[in-house]
Amino acid sequence: MKHILLATAASTVLGGAALAQDSVNVGIILGFSGPLESITPGMAAGAEMAFTEASESGALPGGATLNVVRGDSTCIDAAAATTAAETLVTSDNVVAIMGADCSGVTTAIANNVAVPNGVVMVSPSATSPALSTIDDNDFFFRTAPSDARQGEVMAQVVADQDIGNVAVTYTNNDYGKGLADAFVEAFEGLGGSVALSESHEDGKGDYSAEVAALQATGADALMVFGYVDQGGVGIVQSAMDLGAFDMFFFGDGMYGQSLIDAVGDDINGKVIGTLPGTEGPGADAFAAIAGEAGVDPTGTYAPESYDAAALISLAMAAAGGPDRTGIRDNLMAVANAPGEPILPGELAKGLEMAAAGEDIDYVGASGVELIGPGEAAGSYRVYEIIDNAPSTISYR
């Protein structure tokens, strides 16, 4: 990372001012504390890569540079997340926000801060199906697909393993329930049976009672839709200690090296998981530039974070400057065909074309294709844990 400045004072950018600026404030709000804190640094780094690339290109309107201001969503505390977002919007005058991360705090920020103030949010990881229907006045977008899609993919993955009866545990929030409900509906639609689907609370020291109830169902495998640094890892550790299950399936919130390190060698060969991911020229291009920047290109939601920040930058160029409403009105156009395909590392070209009114199609690191209202079509990486590391099986 060559340089990204963290704001220490508010810029002069106002929501309706499309004037050339030396420095334009943009926000990143993610769970720097909380149940996803081990994966958040990679997400932030991915976004800052794109903002840096846009700044150093010299191709933003008026030669502007982007000044990143971070906020902590905590992932789980809606009040704290709302306060952090209010600071970004009203004190730091950010023109757009890359984030938030977890679905509940993202909904709170959108409803209470971003939409009322006319500020675009592009989330790289908020996947609750409920976000598809919020009253957002077209200010909310996401580069990760809805869990309505992940539930369908996971159901097919389980069915492909010839497993017909599962138990489900999910973190007790919008994300966990949305993913669990989507999976159950899809799996039963394929002829599978769900012996039990129950929530678990994060932050507990002992999950043996929850695991005992899940084990008592006699299910062939356990679906874990939780968080890598919270209740999810506690459930898995307890199940391993009790010898309760021989096969686990993980949702995207469970992807992370910290869980593998915490559970140990016993996890090898016992897990299949999914998370948004793709292959192809865009993914290859991102891997190359991320490697140069010291960022793990396979990190959870790092590609989607790069794409979210890139879309904000490109929409700003298409709008002719740092205008909040202009960013909203141009974001879908720069994301989708028709136009010149733009890959990671090609933001200078994309910015120049967008500023000149030429059509671009931002492909990005994750194969960006936005479908109404601001949804990502998305594809998924299916992986297994082998030799204490995730190993890709396929993409769907």
**How are strands sequenced across the largest beta sheet?**
7-6-8-9-10-15-16
- The value of Rg in angstroms is 21 Å
Average predicted local confidence, pLDDT: 93
Instruction: Return the CATH class of the largest domain.
Output: Alpha Beta
CATH architecture label of the largest domain: 3-Layer(aba) Sandwich
Largest sheet report: 7 strands, mixed
The total of beta strands comes to 16
What do you see in this structure?
The chain folds into two domains: 23-146 and 280-376, Rossmann fold; 148-275 and 380-395, Response regulator (Rossmann fold, 3-Layer(aba) Sandwich), CATH 3.40.50. 39% of the residues lie in helices and 20% in strands. It contains twelve helices and 16 strands. It has helices at 40-57, 78-91, 103-114, 147-160, 174-189, 208-215, 231-242, 257-263, 281-293, 302-319, 324-335, 347-355, and strands at residues 23-30, 65-72, 96-99, 120-123, 140-142, 165-171, 193-200, 221-225, 248-250, 271-276, 340-342, 360-362, 370-371, 375-376, 380-386, 389-395. Helix 1 (40-57) runs parallel beside helix 10 and helix 2 packs across helix 3 (103-114). It is of the alpha/beta class.
Produce a short descriptive summary:
This protein has helices at residues 40-57, 78-91, 103-114, 147-160, 174-189, 208-215, 231-242, 257-263, 281-293, 302-319, 324-335, 347-355; strands at 23-30, 65-72, 96-99, 120-123, 140-142, 165-171, 193-200, 221-225, 248-250, 271-276, 340-342, 360-362, 370-371, 375-376, 380-386, 389-395. Strands 7-6-8-9-10-15-16 form a seven-stranded mixed β-sheet, sandwiched between helices. It has a five-stranded parallel β-sheet with strand order 2-1-3-4-5, sandwiched between helices. It has a two-stranded parallel ribbon with strand order 11-12. With 396 residues, the protein is of the alpha/beta class.
